[in-house]
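Q: Could you write out the predicted structure for this multi-component system? I'm mainly interested in how the pieces pack against one another.
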Amino acid sequence: MKLLEVKNLKTYFFIHDQEIPAVDGVDLTINKGEVVALIGESGSGKSVTSMSIMGLIDSPGKIMEGEILFHRNELFTDNLLKKSDRELQGIRGNEISMIYQDPITSLHPMLKVGDQVAEVLQIHKKMGKKQAKREAVEMLKRVGISDAEQRADELPEKFSGGMRQRIMIAMAMISNPKLLIADEPTTALDVTIQAEILDLLRKMGQEEDAAILLITHDLGVVAEMADRVCVMYCGKIMEEADAKELFKHPKNPYTQGLMECIPRIDDDRRKTLQIIEGYVPHPTDFPKGCRFSTRCPKVMDRCREELPELIEIEPGHKVRCFLY
Ligand SMILES: Nc1ncnc2c1ncn2[C@@H]1O[C@H](COP(=O)(O)OP(=O)(O)O)[C@@H](O)[C@H]1O
Ligand SMILES: [Mg+2]
């Protein structure tokens, strides 16, 4: 069952009379309880996509076009782009939560961590302070904070980066969201801790039956966690497939470039995206045809003139490339 459908999303920035099409017609579907990885080089528009879903695009950014359909259940669907700020505040941190790359700056430095987790319930579930605090302590235990009763009264500075990310996960999950967006959730952490945090994310997602949109540049993470993968480049989805299928049969030359070093189970899992020769074009300077045409090893004349559509070549496998 579909949970979130992003349709033809265009999010542009306007700076010095320049139009920056950071996200330029993105289609993305997340099913209930599913882990979808969004991958692509830096500057592809992954974070802007996630901020658009969260309703966090502010001037100089503007959502120009598209729909973000959130299917609450079989009967109710909301277009999040039609919601007021107030309604979005009710959804954000409640039905859709987000954790960011940097667990240091995402917590309030002057508030006890237990109170920060409890606040989510006080705001979104209108729960009394005492009960909210009790549930917050339970949640802190579930995410692996030992001595949670005592530690709930400490400030974030008393916790390591990994522990702070656990607290962020507690905050994100305590509202029982249907969708968790995790934007590079382990990038800022020590390699040794990354796997623990990912295991926790997966466990919490499964226990709460939450879908996860996992933004990452770490193919090991994708191989380990994702059900489905969307590959993004220059504001567009270039390919989408089941994770196993994508690793076995990447079709788009861009995906193939990223996957030149596919991590194997017995391999070093921390391999990140392969460096593809050349530069990611800046959004003010996207090529006229296929966005990858300036770097593609299989480029044809047509690719420099026309933009290929994203087409389904096999059930569940979509590619944007004239080779197919
Ligand atoms: N606040 C902003 N103002 C202007 N341009 C922005 C802003 N945020 C993002 N962009 C532009 O949008 C593009 C995509 O950025 P982003 O979504 O952060 O990429 P990713 O997360 O894939 O690395 C970048 O080229 C960046 O220059
Ligand atoms: Mg980003």
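A: Regarding packing and overall arrangement: Residues 13, 15, 20, 22, 40, 42-48, 60-61, 282-283 surround adenosine-5'-diphosphate (ligand 1) (CB under 6 Å).
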